[in-house]
């Protein structure tokens, strides 16, 4: 079973069950068949700027999505609870709203796209 934990920093209008389901489906299609979990946080601009500063050493940058793998190691060690902790995906809600509006898309669809993009990074896919 793949568990998706969602935390919203504010009262952001996101269909959480739909996003969870799509993210679970993404991981299953990617071959994750063991018990696994991932956290998805939907935050405001200040929090995203703070994360970019703290972890990427960037100043005043608002990313639409960031991802942080739980374990970055060359060898796999079985977690003691037999659950693969994939990591964290953080999405900036105000950025999503702006991008969805400019692309003529639904906010939930943009959130799903960015969540899947973050999930790809957790699984080792990176930009060139």
From TrEMBL:
It comes from the Bacteria. Its cofactor is Zn(2+). The keyword Hydrolase applies. GO terms for molecular function: endonuclease activity; metal ion binding; metalloendopeptidase activity. The keyword Metal-binding applies. Transmembrane segments: none annotated. GO terms for biological process: rRNA processing. Keywords: Endonuclease, Hydrolase, Metal-binding, Nuclease, Zinc. InterPro entries: MetalPrtase_cat_dom_sf_prd (IPR023091), YbeY (IPR002036). SUPFAM superfamilies: Metalloproteases ('zincins'), catalytic domain. Belongs to the endoribonuclease YbeY family. This is rRNA maturation RNase YbeY. It comes from Candidatus Woesebacteria bacterium RIFCSPLOWO2_01_FULL_39_25.
